[in-house]
Amino acid sequence: MDGSADLRTRLRTIVAQRMETDPAHDLAHLDRVWVNAQSISDDQTDMPVLLAAAYLHDLVNLSKDDPNRHLASRRSAEDSEPILAKLGYSLDQIAAIKHAIEAHSFSANITPETPEACILRDADRLDALGAIGIARNFSVSGALGRSLYDPADPFAADRPLDDLHFSIDHWKVKLLRLPGDMLTDAGKKIAQRRITRMIRFLEEFAHEIGTPLPPDWTNL
C-alpha cells in the first residue's frame, strides 16, 4: 500500500459517488485538503494513511445546523472501514486512518494522537482560511439563509456574537482564531499567511460598509 497516483484516483472515484451537493464540502475540498496535507507533512509521515484520511474524512457530511453534526466525523470513520479493507489497508492502518478522521473535526472535540491526525486536522482547517476560506464561509452562510452581517452593528460592538444569523460573526467566533489552534509548525505558518489575507478583506469590507473595524477583530 502506497500513496501512489493510482490509489488517489481510486479514492477520488469512491468519494465522488457519495459526495452530496455542497460546494464547501465537495470533491474539490478533498483535493485541497490533500494538497494542504502534503505541504505540511514530512518524511516521517505515513503517506498512505494520510492520503486515505484526507479523501474519506467527509464521507458523512452533516449540515452546520444539524444537531448531530458533532457525530459526523465518527460516522465517516466507521463508513471508511469497509472501503479501506477493500483497498488493501492493514488493520493497523485502518485504525490510524479512522482516528485521523474522527479527530479532524472541530465540533467532535477529539484530541489527535498521531502525526497523521494532527496533519489532517491542520490541513482541513487551512481550507477554512485565506481566499478559499472566505468563499466557503459565504457559500455555507448563503445555503443556510444567513445574512452577511448585522447592518445595525456589523462587528458586534454592542451585541453578542451570533454566527447562526450573521456570516461575518463566524469570523470572530471561529475563523480568526484558527491560526492559534494549529498543531504543526508548517500549518501555523501557512495559517498565518492566510489569516493576513482575511484581515485585509475585513478591512476593505469595513471600509465599504462605512463602519470601523474594531481592533479586537485583528488582534487575536
Structure report:
With 220 residues, the protein is mainly alpha-helical. It folds into two domains: 5-110, Cyclin A, domain 1 (Orthogonal Bundle); 130-217, Hypothetical protein af1432 (Orthogonal Bundle), CATH 1.10.3210. 55% of the residues lie in helices and 0% in strands. It contains nine helices and no strands. It has helices at residues 5-16, 27-40, 47-56, 72-86, 91-103, 115-126, 130-143, 167-173, 185-209. α4 packs antiparallel against α5. The protein is elongated. The model has no long low-confidence stretch (mean pLDDT 91).
Query: What distance separates the N and C termini?
Result: 43 Å
The biggest sheet amounts to:
none
Strand elements, count: 0
Helix and strand pattern: HHHHHHHHH
Q: What name does the CATH topology of the largest domain carry?
A: Cyclin A, domain 1
Mean pLDDT: 91
User: Beta-strand percentage?
Assistant: under 5%
Q: Kindly provide the name of the CATH class of the largest domain.
A: Mainly Alpha
Judged by helices, strands and strand pairing, the structural class is mainly alpha
